[in-house]
Amino acid sequence: MRMKATERRITIGRKATLLMCFLLLTVLLSGCSENKSTADTNSPIPGKTAPALSNENAEIEETEMDHVENNTDQNQQQQVIYLWDEGNVPTTIEYTENNSGYFDPPDFRPNMVYFPAKQGVEVKGAVLICAGGAFQFRSDKIEGTPVAEHLSELGYQSFVVNYRLRPFTLQEGALDLARAVRHVRSRAENYGIDQNDIAVMGFSAGGIIAGELLLNFDGFVDGNAIDPSYVPDELDKISADASAVGMIYSFYGRLSVASTDVEKFKTSDLPPAYFLYGTRDPFVSQFEACVDALQQANVTVESHALQDWPHGFGAADGNWILDFDKWLTGIFEK
Q1: Alpha-carbon torsion 82, 86, 91, 96, what sign?
Q2: Residue 64 pLDDT exceeds 70
Q3: Which of 10, 109, 260, 307 could form a disulfide with 293 if both were Cys (CB 3.0 to 4.6 A apart)?
Q4: Residues 17, 215: Cα–Cα separation, whole Å
C-alpha cells in the first residue's frame, strides 16, 4: 500500500479482533432481511403487510461522463454519474490488493446512479438515496435500487449515491453526498426541477452520512475541509444544502449512538426531517432521543414507528414510501 504525504494514513491490515468487531456491527446494522406481517394499526402508512423484498436490479449503463444532458426522455436507461474528477478527489488511498475484505475494489470511484422520473408523471423534485450497511457495504438491493424505482414512479428524479466505505471515514462519505447534491442542483433545469427541491434520504448508516452532510458539509464546505491538497473546482461554488431529509431507521450522530446536541442542531439550520423505524429495532431509544432533541431545537420533524417491524426493512412493499412522498410534496410546495 502506498499513500501520498498529504493523505490520511490508514493501515490496510486489520487484526482479527478488529475484524470481528466490524462483523458484529454489520450483523446488527446491515438490515434484517426478515419481513414483518403487521404494521402499526394507528400508523398513517397504508397497508398491513411487508412482502418479500425485490432483489432485481435494472440494467445500468455505465458512462465516463461526469454530468448528464437534458433528460426529458424518461425512457432512457439509468446512468452512472461519477462524482469527482480523476486525480482530484479529497483524501485518496492507493493500494493494489484488497487483502482486508473491503467492499469496494482499489479502483472504486464514488458515483451515483440516476433513475429518471417516470414518463408522463409531473416531476416533483429530486431525492438522493444512501443505502446502509454499517459503513462496511451498501445494501443497494434492499435500500437503494427498489427505493429509487418507487420514487421515480411517483415523479422524483432519483439518485442512489455510492459513497465511500471503509477504509475511508464518515467525512469522505459526507463529502461524496455533498458532491452529488451539487451535481443535481447545478443541472436542476436539465432535470426539470426547482434547484431548492432536493432532498437526501438515508437508511441506517446511510442516514448518518446524510446527517453528517447537513451538520458539517453543507453550504459551500468543500474537500479542503479534510484534505489541504484538494483543488476546488466550479462545482464547489454550488451549494450542497438540502431542503429535507429522510431518516429511515437512522439518526444524526455516529454509528450506534444518536446525537442529542440541541445547541448544535439549533445552529446548523437543519431542514425538516422524516423519521421512520420499527418498534423491534434495537435503536428505538436512539431514534426517540434524536427526535426529541431536534424538536427542542425547533427543527420540523415528522416521526412514525411501525409496530413490530425490525431494523433493515428497506423498501418493503413501498407503502411507507407513499407516506414519505405525501410529506415531501408538502415540504417542496412551501
Answers
A1: positive
A2: no
A3: 260
A4: 32
